[in-house]
Amino acid sequence: MNHTNSQECIEAQCDTGIGRAKIVRQSWDRPIDVLASSRQHHLQLALLPQPPSDRASYPDVWGARRFEPMGSLFFFPAGCRAHIKSDCRYQRSVICTLEPEAVECWLDRSLPWSESHLRLFLAIRNRNIHTLLYRLGEEIRAPGFAGKSMTELLVGQVIIELARHTQERPEPRVSGGLSARHLRLIDERIAETGSPPGLGELANLCGVSVRHLSRAFRASRGESVGTYIARHRMEQARQLIASGMAIKAIAYTLGFSAPSNFTTAFIRAAGQTPSQYRQSLANHKPDRTGRHRL
Q1: What pLDDT, on a 0 to 100 scale, did the predictor assign at position 17?
Q2: Residue 37 in contact with residue 81, Cβ under 8 Å?
Q3: What percent of the residues of the chain are helix, what percent strand, and what percent coil, each to the nearest 5?
Q4: Burial class (CB in 10 A: 0-12, 13-18, 19+), 56
Q5: Per-residue pLDDT at 284
Q6: How far apart are CA 224 and CA 181, in angstroms?
Q7: Separation between Cα atoms, residue 278 and residue 140, nearest integer Å
Q8: Alpha-carbon distances, residue 21 vs 11, 43, 54, 93 (angstroms)
């Protein structure tokens, strides 16, 4: 295991009675291979694309050889040793470090840490938690009226949503649809940056024919695979534009062959160019506090 040298720059942070929220820029001089634990819970939303090779293990629970994929939104519980491997060299994130005692007081109970929950938290696909962390980043970057109180309320909401997330049941299988496992595999592949997967690749991933995949996916999700992928791709594009990444870099990150093709696709989806969308974010002032989006 290497001893990766990292540099960290805290752009903004706020301490509350529950924990600390901060926006952090990090860089590493080599691929990450770290085994560590913390006395605090750690919740992180990566604002830039994560390498598809990112993975983590809980060796004390799973053994040393089992690793599971990580997503852009992940949570490491306090006291659990995690072994993290990644090719990431630069990242900008919203991070919440939470005091376990404060979390238990807020919920009047502790969060569950079963084997399935540990895997669930490595790649959290919960829009409410994602949105709350993004709002939290906006608030600590440019605090408005009663900013510290607002930050504490947002952190509290995050904790509640995490607790609710642990109680979610697996997506039920629709008659004629794909299994929850196959839908998860498809979502994980689509979440990777780079060129989007084709029907053949997804069919092979699930071990079914292309024809069956097309029919079963529509039965499960109510739309075609192509529409689902395109919509997710544009959601990724909006996040990357908001992060400040160059438009050209975004185009290639998302697998477009040329920036002009990305611009055309974005106009079709959003009704404006990527540059116009970025300018609208910069000009967005919801009230007199002067807060801007990340």
Answers
A1: 87
A2: yes
A3: 45, 20, 35
A4: buried
A5: 58
A6: 18
A7: 20
A8: 11, 10, 23, 11
Q: How high is the mean pLDDT in each 10-residue block of the chain (294 residues)?
A: 71 92 93 92 88 86 89 91 92 93 76 77 85 89 88 91 75 75 85 85 91 92 91 87 87 90 93 91 55 43
CA distances in angstroms from 93 to 9, 24, 74, listed in the order given = 11, 5, 11
**Distances 9 to 90, 91, 140 between C-alpha atoms, Å:** 11, 11, 15
Alpha-carbon span 13 to 24, nearest angstrom: 9
For residues 182 and 136, membership in a common domain is answered with: no
- Do residues 245 and 125 both lie within one domain? no
Residue 294, domain member (yes or no):
no
DSSP code for 180: H
Which conformational region is residue 55 in: left (phi greater than 0), alpha (psi within -120 to 50 degrees), or beta?
beta
The C-alpha torsion from 251 through 256 and 257 to 261, rounded to 10°, is -80
Residue 117: both structure tokens together: 């929950």
Closest CA to 50 of 264, 261, 243, 277: 243
Q: Look at the chain and report how many structural domains it folds into.
A: 3
Contact partners, residue 223, CB within 8 Å, separation at least 6: none
Report pLDDT for 59: 92
Q: What per-residue confidence (pLDDT) applies to 294?
A: 47
Q: Which of 166, 182, 199 is at the close of a domain? A: 166
Do 247 and 268 belong together in one domain?
yes
- Residue 283's alpha-carbon distances to 27, 34, 131, 136, 279, in angstroms, are 29, 40, 20, 19, 6
Q: Are residues 24 and 138 in the same domain?
A: yes
Range of the domain at 207: 172-222
The pLDDT of residue 1 is: 45
What CATH number has the domain bearing residue 60? 2.60.120.10
